[in-house]
């Protein structure tokens, strides 16, 4: 990816008008990401993650200084994503998943394993019915 492509905003299509709808391109901001930083720096996201891991293992003053920088970068990325989703510039569902902000509720299995087979579930249902009688 070329630097010009990274700087160029995405454009989303939006309809304008009440009777005769005209589609117009609206420039939007690109969401920051660790992989986007890697593309800009010509390294992979894995390289950045491994670099941070090596810094944590090293633990000297120089490593702590670099870790402060990488921590700040992560905070800028997550803040920009969250604020962009909040104002509607980015898809809120995708950003919430990416930042780990989703609610995790079990609404279908009552806490039971999903790995049970069909016949196990039928057997369990018959046992419940026989216990109720």
TrEMBL record:
InterPro entries in the record: GP3_package (IPR032066)
Pfam families reported in the protein's UniProt record: GP3_package
Name listed for the protein in its UniProt record: DNA-packaging protein gp3
């Amino acid at each position: 990816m070329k630097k010009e492509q990274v700087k160029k905003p995405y454009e989303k299509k939006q309809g304008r008008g009440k009777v005769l709808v005209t589609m117009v391109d609206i420039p939007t901001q690109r969401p920051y990401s660790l992989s986007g930083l890697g593309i800009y720096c010509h390294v992979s996201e894995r390289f950045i993650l491994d670099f941070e891991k090596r810094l944590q293992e090293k633990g000297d003053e120089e490593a702590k200084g670099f870790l402060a920088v990488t921590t700040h970068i992560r905070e800028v990325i997550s803040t920009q994503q969250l604020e962009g989703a909040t104002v509607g510039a980015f898809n809120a569902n995708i950003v919430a998943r990416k930042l780990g902000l989703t609610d995790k509720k079990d609404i279908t299995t009552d806490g039971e394993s999903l790995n049970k087979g069909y016949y196990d579930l039928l057997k369990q249902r018959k046992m419940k019915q026989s216990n109720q009688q």
